[in-house]
Amino acid sequence: MLHDPAEICCTTCHAGKASANTKENAHQNLEVFPGRMKTVEQSCGQSGCHAELIPLVQNSRMNTLDGMLSGTRRLFGEKPKKQSHPDLNQCLSEKGVDSYLRKLCVSCHLGSERKNHQQILQDHGGGCAACHL
Fold first, then answer.
1. Residue 61 · residue 41 · CB < 8 Å
2. How far is the C-alpha of 108 from the C-alpha of 130, rounded, in Å?
3. Taking every pair of C-alpha atoms in the chain, what is the biggest distance, in angstroms?
4. With helix as H, strand as E and coil as C, how does 64-78 read?
5. pLDDT per residue over 93-133, tens digit each?
6. What's phi and psi for 129, nearest 5 deg?
């Protein structure tokens, strides 16, 4: 969902300083990718926005991948591993079932850090904005 800038100020989601006189000052503490799971409470989860959805998203399979990783590993005949890192790119190898999981799950996994603003399959993570952009 794209919010109309005419209705809400950029700083509502991106933080920063709306009253600043320079771009440098306006961009202090800027949230480049609002809705990231690390900072979702400060952007989408603010009171009056989507606060009631944050716990649902944080506990959803899109964020936890609960059962998806272990089930896929079992399907490929590999022993399930406990994944604890929120950014799965940091804990999946480039080989075997991990390579498959990287291509299948991690590209959309909400906990994956977003690296650009394009909507491309290879970089679709990044919290709420993965789908709602």
1. no
2. 7
3. 60
4. HCCCHHHHHHHHCCC
5. 888 888 888 777 666 677 777 777 766 555 556 788 777 76
6. -70, -10
Tokens standing for residue 63: 């964020």
* pTM higher than 0.70: no
AA identity, residue 68: M
CA angle 75, 91, 64 (to 5 degrees): 70
- 118: β partners: none
Would you state the structure tokens that stand for residue 113, as one six-digit string?
Answer: 């850090």
Backbone φ and ψ of 55, nearest 5° = -60, -35
Residues 33 and 127 sit within 8 Å (Cβ to Cβ): yes
Q: Encode burial over 16-47: b for 16+ CB neighbours within 10 A, e otherwise.
A: beeeeeeeeebeeeebebbbbbeebeebbbee
